[in-house]
Structure formats: structure tokens, C-alpha cells
Design a protein that fits this description.
alpha/beta; elongated; binds nicotinamide-adenine-dinucleotide; 6-stranded parallel beta sheet; 14 strands; about 450 residues; about 15% strand; binds uridine-5'-diphosphate-glucuronic acid
Length: about 450
């Protein structure tokens, strides 16, 4: 009963909606894909040579499909009217006020999108069946709310609500979308629900092997997304907790991670100890899970997962505290160079980056900060650190200038380019004693020690 091939649109042209839809359009040249947003500047950027987000390989994908079968538009209503599959990929941040503030997901944008879809379907003449797809990460049972909004105000349109969470990571989004470990499609366990699931699954099957396209019920799909992020973040907090023990015992966290990671039951990935995890999702999604557990009367489960966040906050604070104590308990008036501000390499995204916490802690201690990041804009850094930080922070386009005259360097993002910097030259330009704090364990600290640096690495005895 669905048109074949189905026309597709997406509400939300952000880090998920943009790349995901671009890849669908590239892989399915006969499917028309329209990506919409309320934000006109964002859409204009998607239609320009300077895309609104940096992601390796994205430019090529967009250039191949844009204007052929990929369109970016602010005309949301027209897209909803025209399309069979409507993805919703709007932001779902943590609530900042009201019930569940600081934990629960803020579903305002989500519900506005739902109501808009309902209103457009209600007004449109042809009652084409619609498949509405949750792409955003949402609490379990959100699909129910979407279905109820649709039922209440959209008479006569046959619709199904599916959950199709996204597992891409920033910096590797295009690779992840080309060759996903799995695509997950959850839907109602009715014949109509099944037909909708197959319609969406068939889009992915054009380039994803069938055995990697998993289908489940709605609630399993919604909960699998929160669980995946919770498990990933938990691994980082676990290895970070061990990093502290390594520092005081003389063990080396990289050696420990390698030694446990070769056990095929544990596996080698996501065991890199760091200054702490960042990004828009890990913390938000765990808090969301914690809130859900509490609401369903499971306080022990909530507490268990909450510890992942507690450990991460402690790791970030510990890093900054350690810098201050190593530098004779004062950084007041000292210049400190920060290499890397993004929450991970190969992205310009700074949402929840540990660099914000570390810089703010150092500014509190009255340090002068010089920041270099190859992809984050000056405006973004000032926005993240706040106006009051303006006179304490200098942003440089050159890592050598950022480090010149500094008492210490802190590496906060694992950009590859930092590995090949000329540290002998940098050392010459610094105040002595010169300190290096490697928050990502990417530098050969022994080589730096030979140059003359006082070195400190996460999970390395000093
Ligand atoms: P984002 O903030 O980059 O993009 C969301 C976009 O939605 C914004 O451009 C906003 O203007 C737009 N929007 C809001 N309300 C709208 C409406 N009613 N109609 C049309 N557009 C609207 O967010 P993101 O990083 O793309 O994340 C989106 C969702 O995907 C979140 O739920 C997030 O948890 C989830 N997710 C994110 C990632 C990631 O790596 N960033 C990965 C997997 C899942
Ligand atoms: C993460 C998940 O990996 C994706 O599967 C998921 O779709 C996404 O969240 C989401 O839901 O938004 P992302 O946050 O983009 O993706 O990036 P990650 O590679 O997971 O890194 C997150 C943070 O953990 C970064 O700050 C990174 O530096 C840190 N990290 C990662 C470590 O400290 N150690 C590691 O071993 C791995």
C-alpha cells in the first residue's frame, strides 16, 4: 500500500538528520529525500559550499546527491505533505526546569514536530498513508505519545509510528552510515506495523546487508538506544576509574587496557582512558535512563547508572586539580595552553566537551588560557566559556603561538596533528619548568621528558 520507492523527508537538519539523509540519498538515487529545519541559517548552510557541520567525507556525499535527489528546505509543510516516510530528528536535550529538571528529556521540540505533522496531514486532501520515524533519542514510550497526538488531531490518515534510533558517532558518521554494525527498526507488532517496518527496512537494505537490519518491537528499539550509550559510557568511566588507581600504584592504564582488551569477551574498543567523555549524548541519555528507572520505581537501577556520570565528573575535576597541584599549587597569572577544544577529534562539536570544565576550573584559579583547536570556531569557544572569560582567554590559529610563553600545555582532544608537533621547538618557547598534561594519552611522554618537560598522562604513574 506504500508508494514504491517512498519519498522521504526529515525534520531536523542537525548532526544526525543532515548526514543520515545525505547518505540515504546518495545510496538510493531514485528516492527523493528532503531535509527540513526551522532554522533558516542552517538550511542555507546545507545549500552552500560551507556545510553547517564538519564531518570527514560529508562534503563529497552531499555534493554527489544535492540537487539530484537530495534537497534542503525550510518548507516543512510541503515536505510532510509530499512524503511517505517522515523522519523526526530534532534535538531532545535535558530539561533545565520543571519536573525532572536536570535529568528527564525535554520533548518540546519533539512534540512540536509531532503536532506539525498531525496538522499538515489533517489539512491535506490526499490521505496518503504515512510512516513517522523517531530518529531522535527519546525516552521509552515516546512513540505512544506521538501516536496519540496523531490520532487526536489527524483524522482519516493511516499512519504508523516506528523507532529507528541512530548509532553513528561524530567524526566517523559517514563511515558508520555506510557500514553500520546494525540498523534497528522497531514497530508495532500488528500487520500494518509490520508492513511499515518492512518499507523502512527495505530502504536500508539497498546498501546494508539484510542480516544487519534488525527489527524489534517499538519499546525494545527505544530502550536499546539508551542502553547502547549507557554501556559505551560505562566502559569509559570504568577505565577512567582504573586510571586513578594506576597513577598511585605504578601501573600503566594503556597496558592494563591492552591486557584486558585482548580478552575477546571484553574486546579492545572504548577502553581509552581520558580527561572524561563529552558529547551531546552520553550524559543526556544516561540521565534520561536514570530518570526512567526512577519513574518506573527502580531506584537501585537508577543509582547504578548514575555512577557513570559521577565518575566522569570526578575525572574532569581531578584532571584540573592535578594540573594545579603539579604546578606548585598555583596557576594564578600563569599562561596555560589548551590543545584541542572539541569533545573528540575530527569534529567541530563542543557540546559537553570536557575542555569546558577544565578551562573553567583553570579560569577560577586565575590562569590565562591560550586555546588552539583546528576545527572549533572562536565564537563557539567564547560562547561555551561565557563573556566573563573573555579577558582570560586568547584563541589562536596556530598551536605554536598558543604554547609560546606558556607554563603548561594540556591536551584535551586527540587530534592527530598534535602527535607530530615539534615539541622541542615548543619547549624552547615556554616558561620553565615546562609542564605537559596529556589528557588523551596520545603523546610519547618519554620523548618529551628527554626534551625537558615535566610530563603527566592520565593513568600513568609520575
Ligand atoms: P541538532 O541540535 O544538531 O539538530 C536538531 C535540529 O532540529 C536543529 O537544527 C533544530 O533547529 C531542528 N528542529 C527543532 N525542532 C524542529 C521542528 N519542529 N521542525 C524542524 N526542525 C526542528 O541535534 P543532533 O545532534 O542532530 O541530535 C538529534 C537527535 O539525535 C537527538 O535526539 C540526539 O540525542 C540524537 N542522536 C545524536 C547523535 C549525535 O552524534 N549527535 C547520534 C545519535 C543520536
Ligand atoms: C556516541 C556513540 O558512540 C554513538 O554510537 C551514538 O550514536 C552517539 O554517542 C549518540 O547517541 O549521540 P559520539 O558521542 O559522537 O557517539 O562519540 P564517541 O566516539 O562515542 O565519543 C564520546 C566521548 O567519549 C568523547 O568525548 C570521546 O573522546 C570519549 N571516549 C571515547 C573516551 O574517552 N574513551 C574512549 O575509549 C572512547
Amino acid at each position: 500500500e506504500y508508494e514504491n520507492p517512498p519519498k522521504i523527508c526529515c525534520l531536523g537538519a542537525g548532526y544526525v538528520g543532515g548526514p543520515t539523509m545525505s547518505v540515504i540519498a546518495m545510496k538510493c538515487p531514485n528516492i527523493k529525500v528532503t531535509v527540513c529545519d526551522l532554522n533558516e541559517r542552517r538550511i542555507a548552510a546545507w545549500n552552500s559550499d560551507t556545510l553547517p557541520i564538519y564531518e570527514p567525507g560529508l562534503q563529497e556525499v552531499v555534493e554527489e546527491a544535492r540537487g539530484r535527489n537530495l534537497f534542503f528546505s525550510t518548507d516543512i509543510d510541503a515536505a510532510i505533505r509530499e512524503c511517505t516516510i517522515i523522519f523526526v530528528s530534532v534535538n531532545t536535550p535535558t530539561k533545565t526546569s520543571g519536573i525532572g529538571a536536570g535529568e528527564a528529556a525535554d520533548l518540546t521540540y519533539w512534540e512540536l514536530a509531532a503536532r506539525r505533522i498531525a496538522a499538515v496531514c489533517n489539512q491535506s486532501e490526499d490521505k496518503k498513508p504515512k510512516i513517522i520515524v523517531e530518529k531522535s533519542t527519546v525516552p521509552v514510550k515516546t512513540a505512544d505519545a506521538m501516536a496519540r497526538v496523531m490520532q487526536a488531531s489527524c483524522i482519516g490518515t493511516d499512519f504508523q509510528v516506528l523507532s529507528n534510533p541512530e548509532f553513528l558517532a561524530e567524526g566517523t558518521a559517514i563511515e558508520d552510515l555506510f557500514q553500520p554494525d546494525r540498523v534497528l527498526v522497531g514497530g508495532p507488532t500488528t500487520p500494518q506495523g509490520h508492513a511499515a517496518v518492512q518499507c523502512l527496512a527495505n530502504v536500508y537494505r539497498r546498501w546494508v546487508p539484510t542480516e544487519r537490519v534488525l527489527t524489534t518491537n517499538l519499546w525494545s528499539a527505544e530502550l536499546s538506544k539508551l542502553t547502547a550509550n549507557a554501556f559505551l559510557a560505562q566502559r569509559i568511566s570504568s577505565i577512567n576509574s582504573i586510571s586513578a588507581l594506576c597513577e598511585v600504584t605504578g601501573a600503566n592504564v594503556t597496558e592494563v587496557a591492552n591486557a584486558i582488551g585482548v580478552d575477546s569477551r571484553i574486546g579492545p574498543k572504548f577502553l581509552k582512558s581520558s580527561v572524561g567523555f563529552g558529547g551531546s549524548c552520553f550524559q543526556k541519555d544516561i540521565l534520561n535512563l536514570v530518570y526512567l528507572c526512577r519513574s518506573f520505581g527502580l531506584p537501585e537501577v537508577a543509582e547504578y547508572w548514575h555512577q557513570v556520570i559521577v565518575m566522569n565528573d570526578w575525572q574532569k575535576a581531578r584532571f584540573a586539580r592535578n594540573m594545579v597541584s603539579s604546578m606548585f599549587n598555583t596557576v594564578s597569572g600563569k599562561k596555560i595552553a589548551i590543545l584541542g577544544f572539541a569533545f573528540k577529534k575530527d569534529t567541530g562539536d563542543t557540546r559537553e566537551t570536557p575542555a569546558i570544565d577544565v578551562c573553567k576550573a583553570l579560569i577560577e584559579e586565575k590562569a590565562q588560557i591560550g586555546i588552539f583547536d583546528p576545527k572549533v570556531s572562536r565564537e563557539q569557544i567564547y560562547l561555551d566559556l561565557g563573556k566573563e572569560a573573555m579577558d582570560k582567554v586568547q584563541i589562536e590559529d596556530d598551536p605554536y603561538i598558543a604554547c609560546s610563553g606558556a607554563h603548561a600545555i594540556a591536551i584535551l582532544t586527540e587530534w592527530d596533528m598534535f602527535k607530530t608537533l615539534d615539541f622541542a621547538k615548543i619547549y624552547e618557547s615556554m616558561q620553565k619548568p615546562a609542564f605537559m598534561f596529556d589528557g588523551r594519552n596520545i603523546i610519547d611522554l618519554e620523548a618529551l621528558e628527554k626534551i625537558g618537560f615535566n610530563v603527566w598522562g592520565v593513568g600513568k604513574a609520575s
